[in-house]
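Can anyone check this?
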Amino acid sequence: MSLDDISIKVADLHSIGSVDALLNEISTRLARFVAIGETSMIDLKSLPFSPDEYEGLRTSLGRGEASARLETIGDSELYETHYPGVWWVTHYNVEGDVVADLLEIAAVPAILHSQPEDVRDGLERLQHMLVQPK
């Protein structure tokens, strides 16, 4: 018998149990959001998911009705999953590579909230436009 005669099977170290564990974590966080308004994020890129698990998570969460696309230095895609309050947020760099993939538990993802300084600047511009002669 030689090494070539030994059957080797490479097992996937990840299992669907990882997806179930994450779905339970999402449920816990969503319950806290409902109860006390606590928002949170889960960094999907930090999790040791196999491609099959990643797709299993996407399938399990599904897509809801709300979505947004931001066009900044790199694009960002946001969509509410089938479970309101659970958002899938993906940020890309200018080359189109995923730089962040997050689940955000919130009414609206934080990146969509206007920053107070931006609102003040917008108010100033609007007021300036209103006083300009027509």
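Reply from J.R.: I decoded it. The first strand starts at residue 40 and ends at 43.
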